[in-house]
């Protein structure tokens, strides 16, 4: 009797389909070598052909042994032009659409679940308060297993939060704040521990940095993270270059992940080539390890069954798809995820911001004057070419960067809706909308800078010291 697929083939990623085809091909060869009955061989061949067809339908290319697909997101936006496709991986985000990436297609490609009204309402019931504006406005738009986290919480079971930062420069920009603003809120409303990974090792491997400079950036970025208001009794911030050498639990989990992920898999997921250094190839296991509570024995008392919730931008999902695939094979619970949209560059939503381009975003070190100048000079406008045309036809909030930024930082829903209607109708001009954003960001950045001044080196040391947090496990 022929084997049937263990799950719906449509639910499998390109890499998973590649592995299924490979396995089935090996099975056919084994049956032929063993001179199995003809009907058994024929059934296995039919299954192989079916898998190859599914692979071609999903990837648009024929299966080639030993050449896994590169599991990056390449989404066609309803056109056949190559330049009209979205491209997303953990290092690059590109789209030709001024509205930004098509997130519905991204959900379909990644196989995650949309954060819908039912889930938001369930979160509101669980925490007994209004959901964060990032949830209300679809800024965190996708999830994996958030329902399991809520099940645990409703049944008085523990979970913990894990997020991170790749310290590629001394100064962070406002886009870097998004996961930390949301994570702080999650920590407060659910009252759970938080671990923050600073991947200074990653930046050393990918950037032209010394290990000393990467670690220095990590400590400087830690100050900005602490300035977001995290509770020192509930938060552990760690540098990979520092913590990895002190925690046997952390390293054991890295090794377990490394053993269960093949070179072909990481090539397929991350697009690594034979010319990449082995540090890059092994790094995904290091980003995976904080997903397991046994990596932090000082916090969780050695327990391995505490589930993890990871708030992150959607471009980090490939790391955690790999992690979720490995977790059951090493006896660990799969981490759950909450995915955010990308924070747009001032010049438009076509790309992510760059810490190396001072005009691509508002940095946390910018003065009120710099903030005003950057927004007035560089913020992409959805307005018309002339005041007369704008009054007649109105502006386009879908592409206007000032309005996009306000959806992230303006707390008042009614005020945001009023601005949208006024701008769309032509009543509100681009310069006036930019003025609202300037008046929103200037005090926000100034308050952050003031809090950061209060963060001492001793405080950073306390946050980054492995220790027991204010929780019992």
TrEMBL record:
SMART domains referenced in this protein's UniProt entry, alphabetically: WHEP-TRS
Any one Gene Ontology BP term: tryptophanyl-tRNA aminoacylation
Enzyme class per UniProt: ligase
InterPro entries in the record: aa-tRNA-synth_I_CS, aa-tRNA-synth_Ic, Rossmann-like_a/b/a_fold, Trp-tRNA-ligase, uS15_NS1_RNA-bd_sf, WHEP-TRS_dom
EC numbers: 6.1.1.2
WHEP-TRS domain mapped to chain residues: 13-69
Alphabetized UniProt keyword annotations: Aminoacyl-tRNA synthetase, ATP-binding, Ligase, Nucleotide-binding, Phosphoprotein, Protein biosynthesis
GO cellular component term of the entry, any: cytoplasm
CDD domains: TrpRS_core, WEPRS_RNA
Any single Pfam family the record assigns to this protein: WHEP-TRS
Example of a GO MF term: ATP binding
Stated family: Belongs to the class-I aminoacyl-tRNA synthetase family.
Protein name, as recorded: Tryptophan--tRNA ligase, cytoplasmic
């Amino acid at each position: 009797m022929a084997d049937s697929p263990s799950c719906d083939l449509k639910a499998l990623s390109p890499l998973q389909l590649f592995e299924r085809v490979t396995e089935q091909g090996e099975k056919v060869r084994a049956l032929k070598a063993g001179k199995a009955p003809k009907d058994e061989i024929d059934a296995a061949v039919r299954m192989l052909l079916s898998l190859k067809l599914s692979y071609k339908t999903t990837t648009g290319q024929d299966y080639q042994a030993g050449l896994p697909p590169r599991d990056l997101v390449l989404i066609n936006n309803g056109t056949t032009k190559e330049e009209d496709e979205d491209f997303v991986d953990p290092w690059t985000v590109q789209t030709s659409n001024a509205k930004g990436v098509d997130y519905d297609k991204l959900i379909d490609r990644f196989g995650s679940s949309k954060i819908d009204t039912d889930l938001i309402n369930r979160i509101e019931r669980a925490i007994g308060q209004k959901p964060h504006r990032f949830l209300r406005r679809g800024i965190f738009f996708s999830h994996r297993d958030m329902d399991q986290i809520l099940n645990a919480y409703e049944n008085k079971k523990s979970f913990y939060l894990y997020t991170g930062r790749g310290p590629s420069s001394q100064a962070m920009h406002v886009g870097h704040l998004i996961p930390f603003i949301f994570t702080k809120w999650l920590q407060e409303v659910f009252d759970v521990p938080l671990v923050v990974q600073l991947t200074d090792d990653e930046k050393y491997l990918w950037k032209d940095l010394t290990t000393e400079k990467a670690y220095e950036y990590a400590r400087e970025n830690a100050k900005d993270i602490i300035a977001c208001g995290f509770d020192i009794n509930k938060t552990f911030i760690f540098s990979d270059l520092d913590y990895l050498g002190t925690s046997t639990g952390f390293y054991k989990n890295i090794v377990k992940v490394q053993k269960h992920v093949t070179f072909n898999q990481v090539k397929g997921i991350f697009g690594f080539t034979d010319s990449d250094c082995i540090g890059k190839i092994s790094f995904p296991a290091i980003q995976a390890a904080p997903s397991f509570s046994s990596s932090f024995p000082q916090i969780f008392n050695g327990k391995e069954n505490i589930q993890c919730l990871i708030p992150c931008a959607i471009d980090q999902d490939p790391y955690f798809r790999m992690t979720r695939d490995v977790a059951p094979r090493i006896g660990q619970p799969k981490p759950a995820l909450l995915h955010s949209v990308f924070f747009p560059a001032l010049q438009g939503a076509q790309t992510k911001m760059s810490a190396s381009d001072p005009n691509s975003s508002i940095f946390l070190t910018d003065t009120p004057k710099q903030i005003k100048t950057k927004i007035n000079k560089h913020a992409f406008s959805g307005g018309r070419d002339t005041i007369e045309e704008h009054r007649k036809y109105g502006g386009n909030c879908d592409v206007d960067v000032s309005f996009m930024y306000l959806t992230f930082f303006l707390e008042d829903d009614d005020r945001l809706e009023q601005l949208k209607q006024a701008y769309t109708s032509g009543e509100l001009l681009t310069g006036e909308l930019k003025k609202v954003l300037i008046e929103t960001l200037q005090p926000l950045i100034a308050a952050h800078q003031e809090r950061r001044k209060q963060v001492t080196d001793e405080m950073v040391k306390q946050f980054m010291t492995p220790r027991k947090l204010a929780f019992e496990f």
